[in-house]
Design a protein that fits this description.
The chain is built from 16 helices and 18 strands. The chain has 473 residues and is α+β, with helices and mostly antiparallel strands. It has 3 domains: 86 residues, 2-Layer Sandwich (Uridine Diphospho-n-acetylenolpyruvylglucosamine Reductase, domain 2); 119 residues, Uridine Diphospho-n-acetylenolpyruvylglucosamine Reductase, domain 3 (2-Layer Sandwich); 204 residues, 2-Layer Sandwich (Alpha-Beta Plaits). The protein has a 7-stranded antiparallel β-sheet with strand order 15-12-14-13-17-18-16, sandwiched between helices. Strand 8 and strand 9 form a beta hairpin. The longest helix has 17 residues. It is globular and about 75 Å long. The relative contact order is 0.11.
Length: 473
């Protein structure tokens, strides 16, 4: 029998998509990568995922796991050979259990992040992972890429938020590792191996996640600053003044927010006069476990001192939930504004916080020396050292002109990242986009260890081939 016949027998014809029905799954969200798949399958249980993997193994067919297809590095898109099977986790969308005494919840990989947040809140708990795509990205994809988001400063990346996993291995077996334990020192940490592996070692089908108490109160403010150096100094003061209560510190170049309010006129900056043209903005969020009054007093004390010392030139503190949401909406609309303005050369980098200002000054100057007129589009999670350092077209350039410069732009930015002891991928993963860059910035020992792990867990090389590691691996 053919593989298609086998898959239809396992799942039913309605859950095996081909032709035009498969096309939406064959292209990434950024429309940068388009491949061809033999089929898209939609299993409804872990056992069905395992059966699909065994069928693909028997026929030698590559497997491409896919969650919400919101990734930015082409990690969930097949190549153009047309022999791969995309395994969509969309039907694996149940919340299996919530344990408020243990502060855990167990969910399937296809659960949309926002639905997980809401289920936790209904149980009186917080699941803190939060990012712009939370209305469509899925937990499986979040874990496969070790997603970051806006609250890493307080709660950590996705890896820090998961206690146990259920995984279908490359052999079609099921590892039942859904343990809700904070301490389990019994050998190698397989959980951490699969988190961040981008589907190249197995398929995450469920996870046991950490929950936290809901904050009693929170305060949000949008601040204007004269320089990125002032932003770094303000972060140090905020950490000293707020401690673990500081849950968010976002940095945005002024041009980013100007683009948002130009393209989405229903949004506005909460300032008057010259402050609306500030070169830099910071978004701070404080979560408090005592009271609204306590939170606001702490917030105003730290920000008041920063204003008096000239670090902050203006501040807009949200007076209610609606204003807080409006401020966050400004920040979360930056990627949408970027997409409207056309393709850019994107970078998701991490730098030691103490070096971020020097990295930006040095790299901006190097880019202008080599490619005069290109624009820097800089925003990100300053609190954990993660910048989205993007490069947009110079006046008069076309998208094609800019993309032709991409290798040179990558070379300058990535070399600068390494000069400042950083990483060329902070939270978006490697996928196809950075796969061929990795050998330039990983040591031979690191790459060889990664290749050996890949071969040990996926000896046939069928799990998401061509992602993270080069095909020769």
């Amino acid at each position: 029998m053919s593989l298609l016949t086998d898959l239809q027998s396992l799942l039913g014809p309605s859950h095996v998509l081909t032709g035009a029905d498969a096309e939406p799954y064959e292209q990434d969200w950024r429309r940068r990568y388009r491949g061809r798949a033999l089929a898209v399958v939609r299993p409804g249980s872990t056992d069905e995922v395992a059966a699909v993997v065994r069928a693909c193994l028997a026929h030698g067919a590559p497997i491409v796991p896919q969650g919400g297809n919101t990734g930015l590095c082409g990690g969930a898109t097949p190549d153009d050979r047309g022999d791969a099977v995309i395994v969509s986790t969309a039907r694996l969308n149940r919340v299996r259990a919530i344990d408020t005494d243990n502060d855990t919840m167990t969910v399937e990989a296809g659960c949309v992040l926002q639905a997980v947040q809401e289920a936790a809140e209904q149980a009186g708990r917080l699941f803190p992972l939060s990012l712009a795509a939370e209305g469509s990205c899925t937990i499986g994809g979040n874990l496969a890429t070790n997603a970051g988001g806006t609250q890493v400063l307080r709660y950590g990346n996705a890896r820090e938020l998961v206690l146990g996993l259920e995984v279908v291995t490359a052999d079609g077996e099921v590892w039942h590792g859904l343990r809700g334990l904070r301490k389990d020192n019994t050998g190698y940490d397989l959980r951490d191996l699969y988190v961040g592996s981008e589907g190249t070692l197995g398929i995450i089908t469920a996870a046991t996640l950490k929950l936290f108490p809901l904050p009693v109160a929170s305060c949000t403010a949008l601040l204007t600053l004269d320089s990125i150096d002032d932003a770094v100094e303000l972060l140090s003061r905020a950490r000293a003044g707020f401690g673990a209560s500081l849950t968010g510190f976002e940095l945005m170049a002024g041009d980013c927010l100007q683009a948002v309010i130009k393209l989405f006129p229903q949004q506005r900056l909460p300032f008057e006069g010259d402050a609306t043209r500030s070169p830099w903005f910071a978004l701070l969020e404080l979560s408090d476990s005592e009271s609204e009054t306590h939170a606001r007093e702490r917030f105003e004390a730290v920000l008041g001192a920063a204003i008096e010392d000239g670090l902050v030139t203006d501040a807009a503190i949200a007076a209610n939930l609606a204003q807080s949401q409006a401020i966050w909406h400004l920040r979360e609309s930056i990627p949408l504004a970027e997409a409207e303005l056309g393709k850019a050369v994107k970078h998701d980098v991490s730098i030691p916080i103490s070096s971020i200002a020097r990295f930006v000054h040095t790299t901006n100057a190097a880019l202008q020396a080599s490619f005069p007129g290109v624009r820097n589009v800089i925003f990100g999670h300053l609190g954990d050292g993660n910048l989205h350092y993007n490069v947009a077209r110079a006046p008069g350039q076309t998208e094609a002109d800019l993309l032709a410069l991409q290798p040179g732009v990558y070379d300058i930015v990535h070399r600068s990242v390494m000069d400042f002891a950083g990483s060329i991928s902070a939270e978006h993963g490697v996928g196809q986009l950075k796969r061929d860059e990795l050998p330039r910035y990983k040591s031979e020992i690191e790459l060889n260890l990664m290749k050996r792990i890949k071969h040990a867990l996926d000896p046939n090389g069928l799990m998401n081939p061509g992602k993270v590691l080069q095909a020769s691996a």
